[in-house]
Amino acid sequence: MSSKLPAGKQKPTSPFRKRGSLQYAASTDLRGGRHLLTFQYSLPGIPVAKHGPIDLRTSMDGKYKEIAEELLSRSLAESEMRSAPYEFPEDSPIEQLEERRQRLERQISQDVKYEPDILLRAKQDFLKTDSATDLEYLKEQSEVRLDLYPEHELIPEREYQRVTISGEEKCGVPFTDLLDAAKCVVKALFIREKYMALSMQSFCRTTARYLTELGDRPLDISAYQEMPETSITADAPVHPPVSETHPYEGLDPTSMPPDMGYSCKMIDGVVHVFTHKSNMEKATELDLPYPDLQEYIADMNVMMALIINGPVKSFCYRRLQYLSSKFQMHILLNEMKELAAQKKVPHRDFYNIRKVDTHIHASSCMNQKHLLRFIKRAMKKYPKEIVHVEKGREQTLMEVFESMNLTAFDLSVDTLDMHADRNTFHRFDKFNSKYNPIGESILREIFIKTDNHIEGKYFGHIIKEVMEDLEESKYQNVELRLSIYGRSRDEWDKLALWAVKHRVYSDNVRWLVQVPRLFDVYHTKKQLSNFQEMLENIFMPLFEVTIQPSSHPELHVFLQHVVGFDSVDDESKPEHHIFNLDSPLPANWIEEDNPPYSYYLYYTFANMTVLNHLRRSRNFNTFVLRPHCGEAGPIHHLVSGFMLSENISHGLLLRKAPVLQYLYYLAQIGIAMSPLSNNSLFLSYHRNPLPEYLSRGLMVSLSTDDPLQFHFTKEPLMEEYSIAAQVWKLSSCDMCELARNSVLMSGFSHKVKSNWLGPNYIKEGQESNDIRRTNVPDIRVAYRFETLCEELNLITQAVRSEELETIEEEAPCMKIVQSAQ
C-alpha cells in the first residue's frame, strides 16, 4: 500500500500506524492516546490484545478461496431464488415423529434383552435423587459453573432455578467435530474482532474476554482506559438533563476548531489524507488505517467456507436448538419469580421504560393520517406559496393540486394510497411507489424531501411535529434515517442547512445517514461516470469538514448528532458480479450493472474507518456501520454484515444459516427487526423468527421501519410492541428485555444511556442491570450472561484442550531429543 519515494528523498519517520495491515499496533499520536479508544462507543466494548499464535487450522485450510467462489457462483446461478439453498429442516410431521419413537422403543427393548441390568440401574438412579451423594454432586457442579465467571462479577444474586448439563461431552457431537467447529467459530470471532477494533466500533465485552484468554499473554487492561465514569449515581433521575440552549443556535464559524491544514484525495476508492494543503510535493501521507482489500477478500472467503462446512453447521444447529430448549426450561422454572421481581419495583412498568426505535426512515416516520392532516393544513395556510418549478414555470401549492383536479376536501387516507397492502408482498417496486402521495412524485418532492424549491420547509415542519409527539411521550426515542445519494458534492451541505435552518432537532432523536445502492440508475442517467465519483460525493465533504470545520459550519454542527451509516435498497435484486481481487476498482467501475452488496459495504467501511481515526484525533464523534442486511437475497450479505457492521437491520435470513446465527449470538450483534414491515414485503408475521432469536439470546430489538406504510396509530413503536406481545404471547419481562436491548444497541451517548439504564450498564452480567430503570429482572440478565459464558467456554475450552494435548504429545519427544544430545 505504501508508495515508493523518489531517489534521494528520505522517507519521513511517521508515528502513525502502517497502512494496509490490521496487525500493527495502534498509534497513540493520531488518535490522542489509547485511552480514547472506547470513549465514543455506542455499545461499549473493550479492546482486545494481539492474540498469540494459537492453532486454528481446520480441514478446510487452503480451500477457502475455491469453496467461497463455488458458493458465490452458485448464488449467481440461482439468483432467481430469494433465499439460500440451505436452511433449517422443517418440523417433522406427526407420523415421522411417531415412527421415530417406535423405532427408539424397539431399540431400547432389544438392548435390555442383552443387558438386563440397564433397567435395574436406571431405576436405582431414579430412586436415589434425594440422596446425600446427589446433593454433593449438584454442589460440585454449581462450584464448577461459578468458576466460569470472573470473580468481580459474582454479586449476591437473587437465587433462581438453573439448568446444568453434566458429563464431559455436553454438546452431543463427536469430539473431532466439536474441535473442528470450535476452531472455525473462534476463527470467525477473531475476524470480526479485528475489523471492529480497526474501525472503532464496539465488540461484545464478554466475548472479547474469552478470546483474550486464548492468546499467549493476558490482556493488559491497564493499557486502556475504561469508559469515563459518569457523575450519575444509582439514585440519579431517569431523565437526562435537558440542554438549555438549542444546539443550532449561535452558529459562529470563528468559534469552531481550527483548520488542520491537511488535504485529502481519493485513491482506489479510499480517501487518503496528506499533511500539506498547498504544496503536494512536500506533503506526507498520514497512515490512517483501513482494511487491506486483499486481506478483506481472504477473510470473506474464510467466512464463506465456514458457513457451508457440514460439521460446523451440525454443531451450530444443535447449539441453537439447545439454547431454545434451555430458555423454555428457564421460563417454566422462573417465570413467576421474574414477574414477582417486576412487581416489587415501584412506579416502573413497560410504559415508562426507555424504548428506542432503532430502524425508522425519516421520510415515512409519520402515520398516514398525520401526513393527510398536514397536507390539508398546508393547503389552507400556504395556498399562494411557490413550491415547484415545472419547465421554467413556477407553481403555487394551490396550482399543483388544481392540476390534479383536487381540493383539500377531496383528500382522504384512501386517496393518498400510501399504505402497503397484499399487493406489495415480494414486490419492492410497488412498495417504493407507495412513497408517492396519490401516486404523484411531485407531492413526494414537495412534502417529504429535504432538497426542493422550498428547501424542505414542509418536511422540516412535519418532522418537528413527530419530534413533539416523542417529547410528549418522554419514553420513546427514534434513530431517523436521512438519505445521501452521492450524485453531487453539495448534498451534505444542503442536508445540514435544512436541519439548521428549520431547527430540526430533539433530544429524543439521533440521525443515521442512509446511502441507497443506486449507482446503476445514476450511471445510466449520465449523472455519475464511475463508482469512485459516487464515493467522493459521499465522503469528501466529511473529510473536508473534519479537517476545517469552518468550511462547512452547518455540517460540522449537524454531524454531532449523526451516529452512523446505513446501506439501503432491495436486497432481493439479483447480483451479476462476484466481489474478488479481479473486480474493477471504483474508478474503473463503469459497467451498467450495480456493484454487489459486499462491494458497497467494503468501500463504505474503509472510508468510514479512515474518517473515524481522523475525527478521533480531533476528539470529534465517530460513526458506526448499521446497514439493512439479511432481509432477502443471498446469504453472503450477512457474512459482510458480520465482518463489518456494529448492528444490522432485519436479519431474517439468519433463520436459514445456523452457523451465522450462532456467530451473531456469540458476538451479540444487534439486530433491529420489523415484523410488520416484513409481513407486508417478504415474510408473513407468524413465520417471523424474532421470538426464536429472542429465546436463543440474540441481541434483538423491535423497530417500525416505515410507519407511513405499515402502521395506523400515533405511536407506531407501541403498536409494534402490542401486536408482537399478542401474537407471540410475550411476557412483560420479554418486552422490557427488547426495550433494554434497543437502548443498548442505539447510538445515544454514554451519558444518556447511563441515565436510562443505570450507571453500571457497561459492566457484564446482572451487575450491569438496574431494575428500577429497565424493569428487567436481574434473573433474566443473569440467565443471559451465564448462558453466553457457558457457550463461549465450550468452544474456547475445546480449542485449549487440543493445545494441551499437543504440548503433552510433544513433551516426550523433547525429552528423547535432549537425552540424545
Automatic annotation (TrEMBL):
Report the GO terms under cellular component.
Answer: cytosol
> Needs which cofactor?
Zn(2+)
Keyword check for Hydrolase: yes
In residue numbers, the region (Disordered) covers 1-20
EC no. given is 3.5.4.6
What biological function has been recorded for the protein in this entry? AMP deaminase plays a critical role in energy metabolism. Catalyzes the deamination of AMP to IMP and plays an important role in the purine nucleotide cycle.
List the protein's name. AMP deaminase
Q: Which organism is it from?
A: Pangasianodon hypophthalmus
